[in-house]
Design brief:
single chain; 292 residues; alpha/beta; Rossmann fold; 2 domains; 10 helices; 9 strands
Length: 292
């Protein structure tokens, strides 16, 4: 859409005002990560295809830097890297948010032994993450604790999500559900085992809004103002992910402690009110600058 934006700006040239561009994600960074992940397993042709995507995004991002007076990204980590990459100070954080749909019943930790993964199952980072979790983390969880548990995979495309159902009877798939609230309410633990991608994970913010404890990878939690052990558990190896999930399923006190802290972080940093305040500050600064 950049060509359209540039043509509109050209028509408006000479008029007062500031141009603010909401990129949301640092797309070239995401594309480069995908290329690096593909390199050892998918061959040089796929690697160079993804790498070319990264170069295309960089070309477009440079044009945005020249065009805009301010650029919005959803992640503080992305802002730092973006400003460094393009030698600018234009990128600023506008955090992702979700509406607060919690209730007294939805902000309590469930007693059931259930994990929840929410995500669009036609989005490659989500597909690769949950496939890896099912193939490599679930078997380790069974070894650590033979008692039964459930993993619910919820989201668009879950009905066509392919995995070994016979070998993984714990897994339930739920596609195109009308309301996510009941699934969050039933969950003991929410997982975000993302291995690549960019921006911030809406699924984690949403889990926090429902006061649910989250186990995530470093990339899954990237860009969020979280602290491992205080309001989230961050683990990267298959063994560490399995141990964290089993530990939380068996430890109500820790689940409750993480839940309370996660909910408070949502209210302070990722609620609609917090995002609106940041947006008002950003546009107030832009307006003041345009009047100088």
């Amino acid at each position: 859409m950049l060509r359209t934006v540039e043509s509109v700006v050209e028509v408006l040239s000479g008029r007062p005002g500031q141009i603010v561009v909401d990129l949301d994600d640092f797309e070239s960074k995401t594309a480069l990560r995908r290329a690096e992940m593909a390199k050892p397993t998918m061959g040089r042709q796929i690697y160079y295809s993804y790498y070319l995507d990264a170069l295309k995004f960089r070309f477009l991002e440079r044009r945005v830097v020249r065009l805009a007076d301010a650029i919005m990204l959803c992640s503080s980590a992305d802002c730092i890297e973006f400003n460094t990459q393009y030698r600018t100070f234009k990128a600023t954080v506008l955090p992702n948010t979700v509406a607060d749909r919690s209730s007294p019943s939805s902000t309590t930790t469930a007693d059931s032994r259930s994990l929840l993964f929410v995500g669009h199952l036609r989005y490659p980072p989500n597909v690769e993450a949950i496939k890896d979790f099912i193939a490599n983390v679930l078997p380790k969880m069974r070894q650590l604790d033979p008692r039964s548990f459930t993993l619910r995979v919820v989201g668009v495309g879950a009905d066509s999500f392919e995995f070994d159902a016979a070998a993984n009877p714990e897994v339930e798939t739920h596609a195109d559900v009308p309301d996510l609230a009941p699934y969050y309410q039933q969950a003991s633990v929410v997982i975000a085992p993302i291995r690549w991608g960019g921006g911030t994970r809406i699924k984690i913010i949403e889990a926090f809004s429902f006061a649910k404890p989250v186990v995530a990878t470093t990339i899954g939690a990237e860009g969020l103002d979280v602290t491992d052990g205080d309001n989230i558990l961050v683990r990267d190896t298959h063994q560490d992910l399995a141990e964290a999930c089993v530990s939380l399923l068996n430890d109500r006190a820790t689940r409750d402690r993480l839940s309370i802290a996660a909910r408070q972080l949502y209210l302070d940093k990722y609620s609609t009110a917090a995002a609106e305040a940041q947006l008002a500050k950003l546009y107030g600064t832009a307006y003041s600058s345009s009047r100088l």
